[in-house]
Amino acid sequence: MTIKYNRRTMPYKALLTFILIVEMHYFGLFTLPQGLEFIVYTNKSKWIGGVAVIVALLCLKNHKSTLKPYMGFLRKYLAIVTVSIILISLYTIIAYPLNPLITTYGFASYYLYAFLAVPILYIYIVEGGYESFFDILNAITVVKYVITIVNGVAFIKNGTLLFTYSSLDLSGGLIRDGKVRLSSGALGFLMMIYNFYVAYSQQNTCTARKNKSFAFLIIGLLSIYFTGNSRLMLLTLLMSVGILVMLGDGSKKKKIIAVAAIIVGIGVLLSSGAVSNFLNSFSSSGTLGGSSIARAGAYQYYLSRFIKNPLFANGFVGDENYYNIVHGDSGIYYQTVLVRYYYDDVGIAGQLALLGIFIIGIYIWPILRIAKLAFSMCKNARFYDGKFVMAVLCYLVCTTPTLIILDAGRVIAFPIIIATGEYIYIDYLKKYNANKMV
């Protein structure tokens, strides 16, 4: 892992690194004094969204000629995001007079993260690739993996956690199968896909880089093993990796080994009963029935809010004065506990309730764009990065039902994915003299 120093890109890299570390709550190692913590972390989306817009505009102003060949889609997308946010915000102000303006902006600010794609794209262009920035992402994510592993092992052995997480109430939804549920952050699973791609890729001939990516992948998998991670996310990771194997980035020997490993793994899971237990966990009568029941109710409620007002749905209303609108006016009971609903629990349904019809421009359009790029590049077997984009597309599509990339805890990864897809595609067009640059 070699992190390049470039005078032109370093300010942007430093800012993005700081933002990512804040998004990961400083890796769970500490908290700031109460007042500072409230500004830096509790209200992080508000200042990150504003900074994203300012930095993007400055980047476009100062590096217009550099960015221009790569901004065809991104320029239109950011315009759509801006108009959508303004219209939804205006509706919210009119429809919910008791909703504080800062609350409206708080919801809107997460979608402003999309503007971070501009400085990220600039870094790729100046440095001639996305690898150096992904080395930074790897460094950040590996730290998070290691801390997650340490906390997971400590909980399994002693029932307690180290670092800041020790202050949390470790009960209910935070405990699963005797393991504590700790997230690897917004980038955790994305970087596992990337590291598998680098380690498996035939194109990448640097043995040292492959070995590092393989080591990082193993550390990431250990972080999954020692914590109770999301069931859907595990399935998504397997499907994304499976796509890379099927698309054939590796030699025949690698492919045989990879397929054999998958077959052996499936055999072990089937014989151990782990698969039946896993599938049963999705049932309302299974070990995690409360989670499944709550999601089913939330899906129904938030979809009904979208159907009632497909143009704006709920809008950017907070629960301070409109709790029943945000979380449902009745909820459901599970084992005598009243379960209320949350946008982030139900993926696309929650976003439909927030964005209404504007989800088409903010989410569906860029997903279709990435799909178009991925399928176009995968037609050329010699262009390996297209396979990586296809695997990321699988990640985005599979997480749409419940763990959508637009959720508060994951949205920081969306501009990274968009910028990476755009850069790789333009690089593909340049290398293979394609007729049209989109």
TrEMBL record:
Listed transmembrane segments: 12-32, 38-58, 78-98, 110-130, 142-168, 180-199, 211-226, 232-249, 256-279, 348-368, 388-406, 412-429
Protein name per its UniProtKB record: O-antigen ligase domain-containing protein
Coiled coil: none
Keyword tags: Membrane, Transmembrane, Transmembrane helix
Taxonomy, superkingdom: Bacteria
